[in-house]
Amino acid sequence: MDDYYSLDQLLAESQKIPCTFNVKIPNMGHLEGTHQRDILPHSPLELPFWLTSLLLVDDQDYLSVQMPKAFDSRVRNALSASAKSVNLRTLASGTGGTWIEDLGLRKVLYKTLKDRLEEIIDLAARLPTGHQDRSNRTNNNLNLETDEFLNGLDEWEKEILKVGQESTKKMKLWEASKSA
């Protein structure tokens, strides 16, 4: 219940996940947006993450989860080539990923997280506090690649950058107080 009022959690849970029903679901045809009364087996449907996670019961086989478009081979290849060059803001942020069974994709996503976090922490130490994207930054000494990276951060990454900047600021204040 800690996340009950969390906007990030609400958005993550409302993220649509492509699924295919394996069984007939009576009286739920309205979820497909059709006039059919039931959802028939092999019917593809995008469901909110919260509903998908409820239906993915270990001992039942109600539905199969399809790979979200944000994780297709084109995106995987781009992430493998250069994790920093992919604009995560435009992808399905907040979909989680704990349900991903593809070991290759998990490795790519882990490497992406690691590479991007290294860059975010480095930028947090170099950027002034409060300067996270082009729209509110007056410092023009950063190159275009850095601008593109900053503008492609998803909300979680922006929060990490902000915390890193605040930590850097506090560290500098502490160092200044020790030398005074």
Q: Tell me the distance between the termini.
A: 46 Å
How many helices? 6
Largest sheet: 3 strands, antiparallel
Mean residue pLDDT:
77
Content-based structural category: mainly alpha
- Net shape: elongated
Helical coverage, percent range: 40-55%
Number of domains: 2
β-strand amount:
5-15%
Computed over alpha carbons, the radius of gyration is: 21 Å
Number of separate strands: 3
Low-confidence stretches: 133-138
Q: SSE order in H/E notation?
A: HEEHEHHHH
> In which order are the strands of the major sheet placed?
2-1-3
Subunit structure: Component of the GINS complex.
Main location: nucleus
Subcellular location: Nucleus
Pfam family, one: PSF3_N
Give a written overview of the molecule.
With 180 residues, the chain is mainly alpha-helical. The protein folds into two domains: 7-65, Methane Monooxygenase Hydroxylase, Chain G, domain 1; 69-179, no CATH class. Helices cover 45% and strands 8% of the residues. It is built from six helices and three strands. The chain has helices spanning 7-14, 49-55, 73-81, 103-126, 144-151, 155-179; strands spanning 16-21, 44-48, 63-65. Strands 2-1-3 form a three-stranded antiparallel β-sheet. Helix 4 (103-126) runs parallel beside helix 6 (155-179). It is elongated, with a radius of gyration of 21 Å. The model is unreliable at 133-138 (pLDDT under 50). Its main location: nucleus. Belongs to the GINS3/PSF3 family. One of its GO terms (biological process) is mitotic DNA replication initiation. It holds the Pfam family PSF3_N. This is DNA replication complex GINS protein PSF3.
